[in-house]
Design a protein that fits this description.
The complex is a heterodimer.
Chain A: H1 19-45, E1 54-56, H2 59-73, E2 74-78, E3 83-86, E4 93-99, E5 102-104, E6 106-109, E7 115-121, E8 126-131, E9 135-139, E10 143-149, E11 155-161, E12 173-178
Parallel strand pairs in A: 3-6, 4-7, 6-12
Antiparallel strand pairs in A: 1-10, 2-3, 4-5, 7-10, 8-9, 8-11, 11-12
Chain B: E1 6-9, E2 16-18, H1 19-50, H2 59-92, H3 101-124, H4 141-171, H5 180-210, H6 219-253, H7 260-273, H8 290-297, H9 299-325, H10 334-337, H11 344-367, H12 381-408, H13 417-443, H14 466-499, E3 509-510, H15 513-516, H16 526-530, H17 541-566
Antiparallel strand pairs in B: 1-2, 1-3
The chains are: A alpha+beta, B mainly alpha.
Chain lengths: ~180, ~575
């Protein structure tokens, strides 16, 4: 009986499996388990993981912290909008604000040093996309997401918003400098 | 109230159609094709804007059109068609009357109304919020209300399907268990009920928020619950198109499942695990732990992926066995070489199977791996993946079964039969390449849902490498081929249904309950019943080789991506 008709025998569940079918199921299951354990494995032995460190906060509180860092460590201003370029000391907390339609401030980091970069939006959802490294992280309003990042090579990198955030979404781009 | 018990028998297939079920299937299929037409025109506009060489629309129109494209395709085209599939798999395959046709019509009209309301909100211009409509970005209340009304209609359709299963059982219109294809449709229906419940949980508060009755929607809560709706609805599609693969194997080859037990267990795994997939979208979001992400994104140790890998083996395996029984036994692949490649029902279904497995399935697992998501999230890789699953997989399978339904359900001869032979290839190959190049661009970081990759006029623009432009250009050209294939489908279906030559059919006749009872299956000795393929052993060697090719590609591609990830800046 074909698949569009009821099974021919009422005891269809007692039909033994074809040898190749069972071999395939076992192979596929093994592969599924390998893929599953690959994720915890990478948490232990891999270097690229998100830390699960996040805090609920308000836009005002977050902006205040970002402003403190900007006041302390601004080295110059760039573009006609006078966006501050911040060079924080290694290991410190750095705050990046995502808002319609701007990243603020611009960060200048040192290669080989680690920084606690905070990401949060003060309005809608945004997407942090660092190019050409291709690191992509969702940025929520109200959730201060902390990522300890270690740039490996000097250069000028771009930050692009890759979560649709309205009519000027495509203009929401910025830079990140690594010395 | 007298029950409508009018049935007709299809002279070519022997399938029995219940009069109201037939009308409902036709209405749902027509509504689906109309949605596909609108969504297809919008697809072309999206494509021509994302192609930097053309860059057709201004930004506001682009985001509007992209929103409409997502909704008309992913929601309205697919779900209207699925309701038709549900009615076919219950009423027609079980030879029984459709339960409560009036309720089914109510469901249909609610779906039409919801689709119109939602499209109205989108085209009005103040609801360019994409398919996902992430709060706190807000749309017009009609946007959410349209989706809610549509979902209520679809839910009614699901319950009519379930009611029909009860009727078939009560009136004894079939013997033993429901057919495997109906079982697959039942899987789709159960997941759909879960999906719609999740949709209600998120869309109703968001609607109330849009009219000012709720003052805050948390963005993380929205994304978590929305994807319990948005991703699960894709699992409805997977179950539905896998059921169609089995149906096509049965219709074209008379293939029977290698093992009812294995195929049904695989469907059951979908029900158990697919609803965890909300996590696929939240892997780089704050506020959720890695334990939660790993367990959910892997569907609890990839058991739903296992189910798809099983279907990917058993469907071609069943075809191989049927073909070998017909005498195509030479070598490993004579059964496949001598398959009816000129029959669009088969060619469409087989390309759907290959595209879903090799492109959509593998990329989906890679994308849904917790850490690998970091190098892909919200890039072009994401739409690349789901065009391979939902378009090459689901839409192409639906197109394939349409070529069967036009003569059987609509009783019309196919118009443009030569074009119909080519259509699955144009659409399937065009769309597969489109998805592939899109994923290529995504690997280079090009974002999805973005009006202008050249970033002309931006304060601090990003310069993409030349290869990214090459990928997007190739994607656009492949996409145009797929659009031509889609237009051919619309031309053939609309032409055939309205202008095709009518096929003479015996009219409806009243069938009383007693007459509709299935004759009892001939008693089989238990020993004969349980000697299926199992005792023969190794019945589908060609399929096994194909499956191993899939597995090897899968393993290689999976680890290539880990290698890419290892080169990225360390993150903790």
């Amino acid at each position: 009986m074909s698949a569009i008709q009821p099974p021919a025998s009422r005891v269809w569940w007692r039909q033994p499996l074809d040898r190749m079918e069972i071999v395939w199921i076992v192979l596929a299951l093994i592969w599924c388990l390998v893929m599953f354990f690959m994720m915890p494995y990478w948490h232990v032995f891999g270097k690229q993981n998100l830390a699960n460190e996040a805090y609920q906060t308000t836009p005002e509180a977050y902006l205040r912290k970002a402003q403190e860092v900007v006041d302390k460590y601004t080295v110059r201003k760039e573009t006609e909008q006078q966006i501050p370029v911040v060079r924080p000391p290694a290991g410190s907390d750095v705050y990046l604000v995502a808002r319609l339609w701007q990243w603020w401030p611009i960060l200048e980091l040192e290669a080989g040093k680690s920084y606690r970069v905070h990401l949060m939006s003060t309005d809608w959802l945004h997407g942090f996309s660092l190019q050409p490294e291709n690191i992509n992280i969702e940025v929520h309003p109200g959730y201060d997401h902390v990522i300890t990042v270690t740039p490996t090579r000097p250069g000028t990198f771009s930050i692009i918003c890759n979560e649709y955030c309205g009519i000027n979404h495509h203009t929401m781009t910025s830079k990140l400098y690594v010395k | 109230m007298a029950l409508n018990r009018m049935f007709r028998v299809c002279p070519t297939t022997g399938l029995k159609f219940h009069e109201p079920a037939e009308a409902l299937m036709k209405a749902n299929a027509v509504a689906a094709v109309v949605s596909l037409l609108v969504g297809g025109v919008l697809a072309l506009l999206v494509l021509l804007t994302r192609w930097p060489a053309v860059h057709l629309l201004p930004a506001d129109w682009f985001y509007l059109v992209l929103t409409g494209h997502g909704l008309d395709m992913l929601v309205f085209w697919i779900i209207f068609f699925e309701i038709a599939v549900l009615y076919f798999c219950s009423s027609t395959l079980l030879n029984c009357r459709l339960a409560t046709p009036k309720m089914a019509w109510l469901g249909f009209w609610l779906m039409v109304l919801g689709a119109l309301m939602n499209n109205f909100a989108v085209f009005k211009g103040d609801s360019s919020v994409m398919f996902t409509a992430y709060a706190p970005m807000g749309a017009h209340p009609a946007f959410y209300l349209g989706l809610i009304v549509f979902a209520v209609g679809a839910l009614i359709g699901c319950f009519v399907f379930l009611g029909t299963l009860v009727v078939g059982r009560a009136e004894g219109t079939y013997n033993g268990s429901i057919p495997l294809v109906t079982f697959g449709a039942l899987t789709a229906c159960i997941i759909a009920v879960f999906t719609i419940a999740a949709g209600a949980i998120i869309l109703i508060p968001t609607f109330l928020w849009s009219v000012g009755l709720v003052d805050h929607i948390d963005s993380l809560m929205y994304r978590t619950v929305f994807w319990a709706f948005g991703h699960s609805s894709q699992q409805v599609n997977v179950s539905a198109h896998v059921a169609i693969w089995y149906a096509v194997a049965a219709i074209v080859f008379g293939a029977k499942p290698l093992s009812e037990k294995v195929s049904r267990t695989a469907f059951f795994l979908y029900i158990l695990f697919l609803q965890l997939a909300s996590a696929h979208h939240l892997l780089v979001d704050p506020g959720l732990t890695s334990n939660w992400k790993i367990f959910n994104t892997s569907y609890a140790m990839y058991l739903a992926v296992l189910a798809s890998m099983i279907h990917g083996f058993t469907v071609p395996g069943a075809i191989e066995v049927a073909q070998r029984e017909k005498g195509y036994t030479k070598g490993l692949f004579e059964w496949l070489r001598k398959a009816p490649w000129g029959n669009p029902v088969f060619s469409g279904m087989f390309m759907s199977l290959l595209g879903f497995g090799f492109l959509g399935g593998i990329s989906g697992v890679v994308l849904g791996t917790e850490q690998l998501n970091l190098i892909m999230h919200n890039t072009f890789y994401v739409p690349g993946h789901f065009h391979a699953t939902v378009v090459v997989g689901t839409t192409l399978a639906f197109m394939a079964i349409t070529y069967f339904l036009i003569p059987v359900l609509f009783r019309r001869e196919l118009m443009f039969p030569r074009l119909a032979q080519w259509q699955p290839y144009l659409f399937g190959i065009g769309m597969s390449l489109f998805a592939l190049f899109m994923m290529g661009a995504g690997t280079l970081g090009v974002p999805r849902r973005h009006w202008d990759m050249t970033m002309a006029g931006n304060l601090l623009p990003h310069e993409w490498p030349g290869t990214a432009y090459l990928m997007v250009g190739l994607m656009a050209i492949s996409g145009l081929v797929a659009v031509v294939g889609g237009a051919a489908y619309l031309l053939i279906t609309v032409g055939s249904v309205f202008f095709g030559r009518k096929i003479g059919t015996p009219g409806y006749a009243r069938v009383r309950v007693a007459e509709g009872r299935a004759t009892a299956a001939p008693a089989q000795p238990v020993a004969a019943a349980i000697t299926g393929h199992g005792s023969a052993g190794a019945v589908a060697p060609g399929t096994f080789v194909l499956a191993m090719v899939l597995l090897v590609s899968f393993v290689l591609y999976y680890y290539v991506n880990w290698k890419y990830l290892a080169q990225v800046w360390p993150l903790k």
